[in-house]
Amino acid sequence: MHAAADEPAAQIAADVLARLRERRPRVHCITNSVAQNFTANMLLAAGATPSMTVAPEEVAAFVAGSDALLVNLGMFDAERREAIEIGIEEAMEEGVPWVLDPVYVDRARARAAFARTIITKYPRVIRLNAAEFVSLAGSAPGVDSLKRFALDSLAVVGLTGATDLVADAARIARIENGHPFMAKVTAVGCAGTALVAACLAVEHDPWRAAVAGLVMLGVAGEIAGERAPGPGSLTIGIVDVMHALDRDTLIKHTRVT
Amino acid sequence: MHAAADEPAAQIAADVLARLRERRPRVHCITNSVAQNFTANMLLAAGATPSMTVAPEEVAAFVAGSDALLVNLGMFDAERREAIEIGIEEAMEEGVPWVLDPVYVDRARARAAFARTIITKYPRVIRLNAAEFVSLAGSAPGVDSLKRFALDSLAVVGLTGATDLVADAARIARIENGHPFMAKVTAVGCAGTALVAACLAVEHDPWRAAVAGLVMLGVAGEIAGERAPGPGSLTIGIVDVMHALDRDTLIKHTRVT
Amino acid sequence: MHAAADEPAAQIAADVLARLRERRPRVHCITNSVAQNFTANMLLAAGATPSMTVAPEEVAAFVAGSDALLVNLGMFDAERREAIEIGIEEAMEEGVPWVLDPVYVDRARARAAFARTIITKYPRVIRLNAAEFVSLAGSAPGVDSLKRFALDSLAVVGLTGATDLVADAARIARIENGHPFMAKVTAVGCAGTALVAACLAVEHDPWRAAVAGLVMLGVAGEIAGERAPGPGSLTIGIVDVMHALDRDTLIKHTRVT
Q1: By the 8 A CB rule, do A84 and A78 touch?
Q2: Residue among A41, A54, A237 whose CB faces C185 most closely
Q3: Looking at residue B256, what DSSP letter applies?
Q4: Do β-strands C164-167 and C156-159 pair in parallel, antiparallel, or remain unpaired?
Q5: Fewer CB within 10 Å, N or C, chain C?
Q6: Are B239 and B45 contacting, i.e. CB atoms less than 8 angstroms apart?
Q7: Is A233's CB within 8 Å of B235's CB?
Q8: Quick check: C171 pLDDT over 90?
Q9: Cα–Cα distance between A132 and B204 in angstroms, integer?
């Protein structure tokens, strides 16, 4: 099922998962209301403790008390924009790592412009799909363009799709795990970015954190998808599988090159 | 189980569903936060691609890039009101069909007044329940009052309940599909209106689109309800069944007179 | 499994549940967007009719037409703050009982200050966890500190955790029902407070209402948890079990001292 070369990624994911379960890091999520409930349950299942307020008045207090910050642009209202700006400032001051999910930047110009601005504020990881990548990077996704975008943005880039690619300027991982149902329900990508944020709370190397988070998501989704009669059941089963996920399951199922 | 007279409705639903799956239309949803996640998953299961932003600054861009617009009044805050007005203007300019779900207009006068105003802006379909109908039409629901309301509003009227009625000034369909659990969970009606919006993206006749969307919902809900131990399971099973829904299942299960 | 002394609590819960199912009270919920969908489905499963708008302009109309009000601080944005103030004023004027869920007051000072202010406006019940209790009561949770806090706030206090404690100045109940998965998914506590609000709509004694609501939640969660392969499945199963909950099941499973 997987070659010896896969073992490092499975190992990375297993080590990070063990730390998540031991330390139970707090992850503050500024995310869209479509994804909030599923994201919270996926974080809890992985061992993290989510908080979700988007009120500008209190987001700094929540970020300061958190171990990582998720910034998801899936709802781009005035309140969330303000909360994001405050949250990122606080994260930078307090040394809290943050990740960016630039949802649908390909659909609205103002959102893409905002994404470009906050990318200058050092997200550790940017997780996006192919259309969003094209919108931000100005080129088709591929190993070279990913590495270039990672270098330009000083961030690890996690491009998800049938195969996930995780790149920094030097390293690349291809994650082959997953299931077609994962693209048939909303918020799976959003939850994946949240998992990467959780991993960043316990793993300083952002490339390893991104690999760990996306491997966990891919393996949990693959196992849940194989058992699910349809995509509705996947949304429940993936939480169950994430909660039960352990080193052995990761070692057995991870397919990364 | 069903008479020959049913076949047209089943045929309509099957034809529209086939086009949904082939064309994967984009449906922009201005809807309440209670219903967003379930609505998105039902649209994805039927073959459509949902977007959900309610930010007034970007709603025009999303509507312009969409094939249909859903306007749901279940949350009636200042931001959504503004987004709805912008969204409808854009839809009218761009020729994007839109549908109205006047949630709980029977509970707050300002909401009913707002609904009456936007009904002058040519929704293709209005989907509501009996209490909402009484509030807007000023008369008890029945074949004559539905046809009159359809004529007055220049919209198809879809009244849902134990039996669904879909009327324009000339035609009426009675959809007998469904399951009691569908009234025991939130957002099923909201998702039904979203399905009608998706159908409008691939079917110009709004009466056929409304029949198609509500038949799909009723058949999926009926099959899922019969398998579900309770209404919680229905919310998952209905997504699974909608994803697997096909012509044969529709032909076999549709009960419309 | 349970002693004769437990029967009163099971009886209370069974009596209140029967009234919920007969009267189907309306419960208006000003709650966070993470919890809205699950809360609505749990209320529907118990027999209540939820509404969820947080628009300041119409919250008074919804509260005036409701039998109980839930105030949950899990999202503490300007709009919800205004809606809460209007909603509580209306509830006091109309004699609509209201309950408070001071989510995460231990994480942000302004939220705790706001909670302290609205506690002066006579919530019938305050439902919280240990960290939230410490933040508001200024002392560790225990029988004496709960009774003191209940006396000071003139409210029944429902402290939830592995064991739930329900106290007013004179009475205390220890609810031993529940399942570890209930702490592994979001919004279970929020839904519990909503159930207490529903119970208050049909039971004037707030201590009995709080016992009834938390017993229903604990028993439903325990039965669902024992059947669930993981916490994801719990979120669905608990709605199914709540919908099927009856006197016999409550009498058989309630463990209260």
Answers
A1: no
A2: A41
A3: B
A4: antiparallel
A5: N
A6: yes
A7: no
A8: yes
A9: 31
Q: Which of A37, A111, A184 sits opposite B58 (nearest CB)?
A: A111
pTM equals 0.96
Q: Please tell me what DSSP assigns to residue C14.
A: H
Comparing C-alpha atoms, which of A228, A229, A155, A230 is closest to residue A196? A155
Q: Got the DSSP string for B56-101?
A: HHHHHHHHHT-SEEEEE-SS--HHHHHHHHHHHHHHHHHT--EEEE
**Which alpha helices (DSSP H) does C24-171 contain, by range?**
36-46, 56-64, 78-94, 109-119, 130-137, 143-153
- In the predicted model, residues of chain A with pLDDT beneath 70 are 1-7
B243·A232 Cβ contact <8 A: yes
What pairs with residue A164 in β-bridges?
Answer: A175
CA distance C28 to C71: 9
Chain B residue with the nearest C-alpha to that of C53:
B75
> Please, which pLDDT band fits residue C7 given cuts at 50, 70 and 90?
low
- Domains parsed from chain B with CATH numbers: 4-253 (3.40.1190.20)
Provide, rounded to the nearest whole percent, the portion of chain B with pLDDT above 70. Answer: 97
Please indicate if any CB of chain C lies within 8 Å of the CB of B95.
no
Rounded to an integer, what distance in angstroms lies between the CA atom of residue B233 and that of residue C233? 9
Beta-strand relationship, C125-128 and A164-167: unpaired
Nearest Cα residue to B200 out of B192, B208, B189: B208
A30's enclosing H/E stretch is: strand A26-30
Residue A98 · residue A91 · CB < 8 Å = yes
Q: Quick one: C123 exposed, middle or buried, by C-beta within 10 A (0-12, 13-18, 19+)?
A: buried
| Triad C54, C102, C61: Cα angle to 5° | 25
Cα atoms in the Cβ-side hemisphere of radius 13 Å centred on A25 = 28
Give the one of A40, A41, A58 whose C-beta lies nearest to C111's C-beta.
A58
- Tokens encoding A158: 């996690």
Token pair listed for C127: 């439902």
C54 at B interface, C-beta within 8 A: yes
State phi, psi for C150 to the nearest 5 degrees.
-60, -40
Q: What residues contact residue B236 under an 8 Å CB cut-off, 6+ apart?
A: A232, A233, A235, A236, C236
| β-pair partners for C173 | C166
Which residues of chain B lie closer than 8 angstroms to C239, CB-CB? 185, 230-233, 235
Mind telling me how many Å the CA of B37 is from chain C's nearest CA?
Answer: 9
Nearest chain B CA: its distance from A15 CA (Å): 32
Contact yes or no for A107 and B51 at CB 8 A: yes
Interface confidence: ipTM more than 0.85: yes
Instruction: Tell me the per-residue pLDDT of C225-250, one tens digit each, with 9 for 90 and over.
Output: 999 999 999 999 999 999 999 999 99
Measured CA to CA, the distance from residue A24 to residue C121 in angstroms comes to 36
Q: Is C122 left (phi over 0), alpha (psi -120 to 50) or beta?
A: left
Residues in Cβ contact with A22 at an 8 Å cutoff, skipping those fewer than 6 apart? A47
* C-alpha A126: how far from chain center: 8
Listed residue (A190, A245, A188) closest to A219, CA to CA: A245
Report how far residue B214's alpha carbon sits from residue B192's, in angstroms, rounded to the nearest whole number: 6
Contact B125, B192 (CB under 8 A): no
C-alpha–C-alpha distance, residues A83 and C53, integer Å? 22
- How close does chain B come to C233, measured CA to CA in Å? 9
Nearest CA among B34, A19, A93, A55 for reference residue C107: A55
pLDDT, tens digit (0-9, with 9 covering 90-100), for C12-64: 999 999 999 999 999 999 999 999 999 999 999 999 999 999 999 999 999 99
